[in-house]
Specification:
alpha/beta; Rossmann fold; eight-stranded mixed β-sheet; two-stranded antiparallel sheet; 17 helices; disordered N terminus
Length: about 500
C-alpha cells in the first residue's frame, strides 16, 4: 500500500535528471564560456587548398590578360600553371610550413615560403631548358607570375596569421586537457607540458580518487578538480579534448577500472610515458610536443571525417527536406484534422556527449496526454496514440520534422544512433542503468536513422535484449563509420521501414 501510494505521488511530479555534483573548483571551470575547437589538421588542409587555388588563379589570370591576346590559346601554359601550383604546395609541405604553430609566426614562415616559391621557379626554368622549351615561354608572363604570385601568397599568409592568432585568443586552437593522477607523477607531467613553447595543451586541472597525502591539492599550478567519477559529468559541462593519465603503467588494475568509466566520452584518452621506466619502440608513441604518450582511445569522427559528415548532412539533408515538404504538408493537415492541438511535438532527447536537445516530431498522441519526457513507453494499441498517430508512427512519417534539426539546428545527423528520450526506461530502470556502456553511443551526433534501425531494432523497448542490441549496433556504426556507410544506411532505410516495422507502435 505504502509503495503504491509513493509511486502514485512520484508519478505526478516532474522527472528530474540525475546530475553528479561537482566541486566548486570544477564548477568554476565549467562556468567559463568556451567556444568550439578548430582542427589544426583541417586548417592546414584548407591552407594547402587555398595556396593551390590562389596560385592557379594568378597564373591563369596573367596568361589570359597578357599571353593569350598576343599568341592565342596554348594548353601547355595551363598545364605548366597547374604543375607549378602543385609543385609549390609540395615544396611548402617539404619545408614544413603547414603547421598551426608556423602560421602564428611571421619571419620563419615568410622565409621558408619565399625560398620554396623561388625553388619552384628555378625547377621550372631548369625543366624548360632541358626540354628546349625556354624560347616558347613568355618571360614577361613568367616574371609576373613569380612576383604577383609571391605577393598574393604573402597577403594570404598575413590574413591567415591574423585569423590563427584570433582563434588562439578565443581558445579555439587549445587542446583542453585534464590530468588523471594528482601525485608527483602528475606534477612532473604538468610541468613538462607547461615548459613547452607554442604548445596547444591547456591543462584545466587534475582528478584523483585518493584523499590521503599522496594526492596533491595542486600539481604545478593545476588545481585538483575532483575524483575520477566526476570526469564524465565535468566533460559534459565543458569542452574537454584530451584525458591524460599520469599514473605509472604498473598501476594496470586502477587504470583499467578508470577506463571503464571514461571510454564513453568523445575525447582522446592517452597514457603518459613521461615518468614511466618502460621504454617502447619510438613508433609506439605519439607525442604532445616532446612528451611521449601511448594512445588508448581516440575520439571518433574527427578532423576531415567531421567535415565530410557535416557536408553530407547539410547537402543531402537539404535535398531530402525539399523532397519531403509535400508529404510533410499532407501529414501536418491530417494531424490537425484528426485531433486538436499543435501539429509538431518537441521532446527532450540525448544528443552528442549527452547534451539535452529538442527533437521535432509530428504529434502522434492526443495533446492532453503528450509525454515530452517519454517516461511511459508507447505500447501496442496504446490509447494515447491517435488514429493518424498510429499510421505515422508505423511508417516513421512522424520523424520527418527531424530534418529541421539536421539542416537548421545541426544537433542531429541524417545517420547515427537514434536519440532516446532522457527519461527513456526499460521497465523501472533508465537505459544507462540497464546496459553497461550505454552512453558510449553518444560519442557521435545522433541521427534520424541508424544501423540498428535498418537491422530491425526500432520501436518499443520492452526487454533487455532490445536495448542491448541497439547499443551493440550503434557502437559498431561508430567504430566503422564512413560516408559510404552513411549512404548505404540512408538508402536502405525505406526498405527497412516496409519490412521491419513489427516493433513500431
Amino acid at each position: 500500500m505504502l509503495d503504491a501510494a509513493a509511486a502514485t505521488a512520484t508519478a505526478g511530479r516532474p522527472q528530474v535528471e540525475r546530475r553528479r555534483r561537482l566541486s566548486p573548483a570544477a564548477l568554476e571551470v565549467t562556468n567559463q564560456k568556451v567556444r568550439g575547437a578548430y582542427s589544426p589538421i583541417v586548417i592546414a588542409g584548407g591552407a594547402r587548398v587555398a595556396d593551390f587555388v590562389l596560385l592557379t588563379l594568378v597564373g591563369v589570370g596573367l596568361y589570359l590578360a597578357y599571353v593569350m591576346p598576343l599568341a592565342g590559346f596554348h594548353w601547355e601554359y595551363i598545364a605548366s600553371i597547374l604543375g607549378m601550383s602543385i609543385a609549390a604546395v609540395v615544396c611548402f609541405q617539404a619545408a614544413d610550413i603547414y603547421q598551426v604553430q608556423v602560421f602564428r609566426g611571421q619571419l620563419r614562415q615568410m622565409t621558408l615560403m619565399i625560398s620554396s616559391w623561388a625553388f619552384v621557379f628555378l625547377l621550372f626554368i631548369g625543366v624548360s631548358f632541358l626540354a628546349k622549351l625556354g624560347g616558347e615561354v613568355s618571360r614577361v608572363w613568367l616574371s609576373s607570375f613569380f612576383f604577383v604570385g609571391l605577393a598574393a601568397l604573402i597577403i594570404e599568409r598575413l590574413a591567415l596569421r591574423s585569423l590563427v592568432r584570433a582563434w588562439a585568443r578565443d581558445g579555439r586552437l587549445d587542446r583542453r586537457t585534464i590530468i588523471v593522477g594528482a601525485d608527483q607523477n602528475g606534477e612532473q607531467l604538468v610541468e613538462a607540458l607547461k615548459a613547452q613553447d607554442d604548445s596547444d595543451i591547456h591543462v584545466l586541472g587534475v582528478f584523483d580518487d585518493r584523499n590521503d597525502g599522496r594526492a596533491l591539492d595542486t600539481c604545478a599550478g593545476a588545481r585538483k578538480l575532483g575524483k575520477v567519477d566526476d570526469i564524465v559529468e565535468f566533460a559534459r559541462r565543458t569542452r574537454v579534448d584530451l584525458v591524460l593519465f599520469a599514473l605509472p603503467i604498473s598501476a594496470e588494475t586502477r587504470i583499467l577500472e578508470m577506463l571503464k568509466k571514461l571510454w564513453v566520452l568523445p575525447v582522446d584518452i592517452r597514457l603518459s610515458a613521461h615518468t614511466n621506466k618502460l621504454r617502447f619502440r619510438p613508433r609506439s608513441y605519439s607525442y604532445l610536443g616532446e612528451v611521449p604518450t601511448l594512445d588508448v582511445f581516440e575520439a571518433p569522427i574527427t578532423d576531415w571525417d567531421l567535415v565530410m559528415k557535416w557536408l553530407f548532412d547539410r547537402v543531402v539533408g537539404s535535398l531530402a527536406l525539399l523532397a519531403a515538404l509535400p508529404v510533410m504538408a499532407l501529414v501536418a493537415l491530417a494531424v490537425k484534422l484528426d485531433s486538436p492541438g499543435p501539429v509538431l511535438f518537441r521532446q527532450k532527447r540525448f544528443g552528442f556527449n549527452n547534451e539535452r536537445i529538442d527533437v521535432y516530431k509530428f504529434r502522434s498522441m492526443y495533446h492532453h496526454q503528450a509525454d515530452p519526457t517519454a517516461s511511459k513507453v508507447v505500447t501496442k494499441n496504446d490509447p494515447r496514440v491517435t488514429r493518424v498517430g498510429r499510421f505515422i508512427r508505423k511508417t516513421s512519417l512522424d520523424e520527418l520534422p527531424q530534418l529541421f534539426n539536421v539542416v537548421f539546428k545541426g544537433n542531429l545527423s541524417l545517420v547515427g544512433p537514434r536519440p532516446h528520450a532522457v527519461q527513456g526506461k526499460l521497465q523501472s530502470r533508465l537505459f544507462d542503468e540497464a546496459v553497461d556502456g550505454y552512453f558510449a553511443r553518444h560519442r557521435v551526433k545522433p541521427g534520424i536513422t541508424g544501423w540498428a534501425q535498418i537491422n530491425g531494432w526500432r520501436g518499443e523497448i520492452d526487454n533487455e535484449e532490445k536495448i542491448q542490441k541497439r547499443v551493440e549496433f550503434d557502437l559498431y556504426y561508430i567504430e566503422n563509420w564512413s560516408v559510404l556507410f552513411d549512404l548505404f544506411i540512408l538508402l536502405k532505410t525505406p526498405i527497412s521501414l516496409l519490412t521491419k516495422n513489427e516493433n513500431a507502435y
